[in-house]
From TrEMBL, chain A:
It is found in: Cytoplasm, Cytosol. It comes from Acacia crassicarpa (northern wattle). GO terms for molecular function: guanyl-nucleotide exchange factor activity; translation initiation factor activity. GO terms for cellular component: cytosol; eukaryotic translation initiation factor 2B complex. It comes from the Eukaryota. This is Translation initiation factor eIF2B subunit alpha.
From TrEMBL, chain B:
It comes from Acacia crassicarpa. The lineage of its organism: Eukaryota, Viridiplantae, Streptophyta, Embryophyta, Tracheophyta. One of its GO terms (molecular function) is translation initiation factor activity. Belongs to the eIF-2B alpha/beta/delta subunits family. InterPro entries: eIF2B_beta_subunit, IF-2B-related, IF_2B-like_C, NagB/RpiA_transferase-like. It is found in: Cytoplasm, Cytosol. Keywords: Cytoplasm, Initiation factor, Protein biosynthesis. Residues 160-171 have a biased composition (Basic and acidic residues). Pfam families: IF-2B. It comes from the Eukaryota. Component of the translation initiation factor 2B (eIF2B) complex which is a heterodecamer of two sets of five different subunits: alpha, beta, gamma, delta and epsilon. Subunits alpha, beta and delta comprise a regulatory subcomplex and subunits epsilon and gamma comprise a catalytic subcomplex. Within the complex, the hexameric regulatory complex resides at the center, with the two heterodimeric catalytic subcomplexes bound on opposite sides. This is Translation initiation factor eIF2B subunit beta. SUPFAM superfamilies: NagB/RpiA/CoA transferase-like. The keyword Methyltransferase does not apply. Residues 147-175 are annotated as: Disordered.
Length: 399, 415
């Protein structure tokens, strides 16, 4: 591989591919458009789908997509569910009477547009607890571990899913409060916490919106890239507080989530201007601050977010504009990407409007990594943090 | 409370008239005023910590409003509030520990109540511990259902204590007050000895034959340099005079009196000289939560020059200068415009300064402070050691509790 990096993450992934499907090892560098996603999924038995389910869901919730692509995406997800049923079977073994799959459960929750990914993950794990026939804490833990592993391997591109599973597992295995109680009350307590997590997530957004208010001043211009519920919440609250500001929205190709955001902002009577993604540098001198959400916050303090965040941050940095990230703390993930290629790619279908010749390669990744030196501050429910705090929090939690 | 009012008012008017300036002096005096507020405050039987916090907050709000530029005042108010919370918590956990032991000893009497209070006591302790801790990922899942119960754990702990052992009531109140005053005394002690603590580290940073550059006059810097001199380091100091107050002259004189080689340069000569400098050591007015520094005017220029030539830019700051707010916060008044008389002689320029007559409209702006962004600072030296700018949040989490960040907003919202 010409882009072979030092990181073991990538190597691991390649080893997995080798172990699972020796015949598909000779995957050429991502093929052209001729390689249809469906065919590929069909051949490829590994649980890592060719189309990133996470970004597919995001696009479905936040994006503006033409109908034929939506149909194709639907077909792709349907195809995916086949190998997944197999990977979920180990969970089913423990519960032979009633077939139950975490992944189905998770997908049910995931379909709700208002629900954050991590919330869906934790709800799915709660369902595992509920259907479990374990009689000791240890058994339950093992069962949960299996479920969370299969969930994580089902969609490796979703950082919130992984982080949500890890957070919940950490709570189950290491919480002192559970030691005082007998098994049944501990179990019901776990379920209760899992149910409450949706509320936590909702509250986190409110806290972030409150914290960010100090940073939005009258007459400022805010550039927003991509659609983020947190950022929308921040802007909504600022508008409610009678702050006068205007927003530049990037278009957010390929799912065009910026269109959706501009639509929401226009409903709130916030002056909003839509830019094509390549106009970021052109408009940057008018901009006072850049606001982005995050799919995941990694240990270095950098963020993984929708494609284009990195270049937006670079432009802002070179023009000395602050880049603010709004992200809930449960998106903190134990990853340390060294460069862009260090992450498992999360390919999504990209439409160019015209047929692309088969010899032309297409970059399909849905996300990029923005290193911490280009970020000014992170607004999280833990407070306003500098990027270096993130690793501190993660170490406190997992060490 | 009425007994301390004259004291508070006296300090308020001193602050307002700018009779008392400088972060160390204001910090120390604030701590002393708050100490007498605490010692005069009469405590109710329940929720004593709450009463103390309210009293300190009320006075603190006035003090901050009197001179918002002196950020150290607000810092000390927050520190004292944090101290009260901490002492209350340690008393509560002590009481719980006592409760557990006593419950264990006389378990024949109340068997049915026995295991229940121990469990709840542990839960209360855990909840109370989490109130002081800043929110973290660790407590994200744990705290949620308890969050409603957390604010009045201290009061409910006090109540149950009061009911069960009525004789304890008075003594516990006195104990809390005593502990808090003791801790505030420690704080005052810390503020007055911070120079020595910082100066102790001088030998680690200043080496033989080095050239140091500093701007204006700071007692911390003076002590720091002298401490290195006492350890037989020989080095040269460039003192930037620091217009318009020219405090650099005072510093240069002091340094020369103590046998150090000092060279005075003008503010405009900084860039010319910086290439010969090994290290820039300066004092600060305040250090913000993001690691940015509010410093005497002219320092940003020095920091930029230092960055251009990759000269380490070291900031000395006592822990009372650590401010838990961000410079974007509107509550932080970053700058103060001083009298134009420091710049221009009134007699000579009185004609053109008189804008009322319309004859001339010469304006003089004399800002007192600069903001140096965190990326220009190489190292902070505080009384606890050397720290990276990005580490400041950690120190702040140790010194302040998250509830106290907004002293003013909370009280106005409440009243």
């Amino acid at each position: 591989m010409w882009y072979r990096s030092a990181s073991f993450i990538l190597d691991n992934r390649q080893q997995n591919v080798a172990a699972l499907a020796p015949d598909t090892l000779s995957i050429s560098p991502p093929g052209g458009t001729t390689r249809t996603s469906m065919a590929d999924t069909f051949q490829n038995p590994n649980p890592n789908p060719v189309i990133s389910a996470y970004y597919q869901t995001r696009a479905a919730h936040h994006g503006v997509i033409t109908s034929d692509w939506l149909a194709q995406a639907q077909a792709a997800t349907d195809q995916n569910s086949d190998p997944n049923a197999i990977s979920a079977s180990d969970v089913r073994v423990s519960d032979p009477d009633k077939p139950f799959s975490v992944i189905d459960e998770f997908n049910d929750w995931r379909k709700q547009p208002d629900l954050a990914e991590a919330v869906a993950a934790i709800r799915a794990l709660a369902a595992v607890i509920r259907s479990s026939k374990a009689t000791t804490m240890m058994e339950l833990e093992i069962e949960l571990k299996k479920a969370s592993d299969s969930l994580k391997s089902w969609d490796e591109t979703s950082i919130s899913l992984t982080a949500g599973c890890d957070l919940f597992m950490r709570y189950v295995t290491r919480t002192a409060a559970l030691e005082y109680e007998d098994f049944n009350s501990a179990k019901s307590r776990l379920i209760e916490r899992a149910e409450k997590f949706g509320e936590i997530s909702y509250k986190a957004r409110k806290v972030i919106a409150m914290l960010a208010q100090d940073f939005i001043f009258d007459g400022c211009t805010i550039l927003v890239h991509g659609y983020s519920r947190v950022v929308l919440e921040v802007l909504k609250l600022a508008a409610q507080n009678k702050k006068l500001f205007r927003v530049f929205c990037t278009e957010g190709r390929p799912d065009r989530s910026g269109l959706r955001l501009s639509n929401e902002l226009a409903k709130l009577d916030i002056p909003v201007k839509l830019l094509i993604d390549s106009a970021v540098a052109y408009t940057m001198d008018e901009v006072d601050m850049v606001f982005v959400g995050a799919d995941g916050v990694v240990e270095s303090g950098g963020i993984i977010n929708m494609m284009g965040t990195y270049q937006t941050a670079l432009v802002a940095h070179s023009m000395n504009k602050p880049v603010y990230v709004a992200a809930e703390s449960y998106k903190f993930a134990r990853l340390y990407p060294l460069d862009q290629k260090d992450l498992a790619p999360a390919p999504i279908p990209i439409e160019f409007g015209v047929p692309v010749p088969s010899k032309v390669e297409i970059e399909r990744s849905a996300r990029d990594y923005t290193p911490p030196q280009y970020l000014t501050l992170l607004f999280t429910d833990l407070g306003v943090l500098t990027p270096s705090v993130v690793s501190d929090e993660l170490i406190q939690l997992y060490l | 409370m009425p007994d301390v009012q004259p004291l508070v008012n006296g300090f308020l008017s001193q602050l307002k008239k700018r009779k008392i300036e400088g972060s160390q002096a204001t910090a120390k005096q604030t701590a002393e005023v708050l100490r007498s507020v605490i010692s005069q405050q009469r405590l109710p039987h329940t929720n004593q910590a709450g009463a103390l916090i309210d009293a300190v907050r009320a006075v603190g709000e006035q003090l901050i409003a009197a001179n918002p530029v002196e950020i150290a005042v607000g810092n000390i108010v927050r520190r004292v509030l944090h101290i009260i919370r901490e002492e209350d918590l340690s008393l509560a956990t002590d009481a719980i520990a006592g409760l557990g032991i006593s419950a264990g000893s006389d378990d024949e009497d109340d068997v049915e109540q026995d295991d229940h209070p121990v469990l709840s006591a542990a839960a209360v302790a855990a909840a109370a511990r989490s109130t002081l801790r800043p929110p973290s990922l660790q407590t994200l899942l744990e705290d949620m259902p308890d969050s409603a119960a957390v604010p009045h754990t201290s009061s409910s702990g006090g109540e149950s204590e009061g009911k069960s052992r009525s004789a304890d009531k008075g003594s516990r109140g006195r104990k809390l007050k005593h502990d808090v005053i003791e801790a505030v005394n420690d704080l005052i002690q810390d503020i007055s000895t911070c120079h020595e603590q910082i100066a102790e580290q001088a030998v680690e940073h200043i080496h033989h034959n080095e050239v140091i550059l500093t701007l204006g006059s700071s007692r911390t810097v003076l002590e720091f340099l002298c401490a290195a001199k006492e350890k037989k380091r020989s080095f040269r100091v460039f003192v930037v005079e620091g217009a318009p107050r020219y405090q650099g002259h005072v510093l240069a004189k002091d340094l020369a009196a103590r046998g150090l080689q000092a060279t005075v340069i003008t503010d405009s000569a900084v860039f010319a000289m910086i290439s010969r400098v090994n290290m820039v050591i300066v004092g600060a007015h305040a250090v913000m939560a993001n690691g940015g520094v509010i410093a005497p005017v002219g320092l940003n220029m020095v920091a930029l020059a230092a960055q251009r030539h990759a000269v380490p830019f070291v900031v000395l700051a006592g822990s009372h200068k650590l401010c838990p707010l961000y410079p974007h916060n509107p509550e932080v008044l970053l700058n103060e415009l001083r009298s134009p008389s420091e710049l221009l002689d009134f007699g000579e320029f009185s004609d053109c300064l008189d804008s009322a007559s319309g004859a001339g409209s010469l304006h003089v702006v004399n800002p007192a402070f600069d903001y140096v962004p965190p990326k220009l600072v190489s190292l902070f030296i505080t009384d606890t050691g050397g720290h990276n700018p990005s580490y400041m949040y950690r120190l702040i989490a140790d010194y302040y509790s998250a509830d106290d960040l907004v002293v003013k907003g909370r009280t106005t919202a409440g009243s």
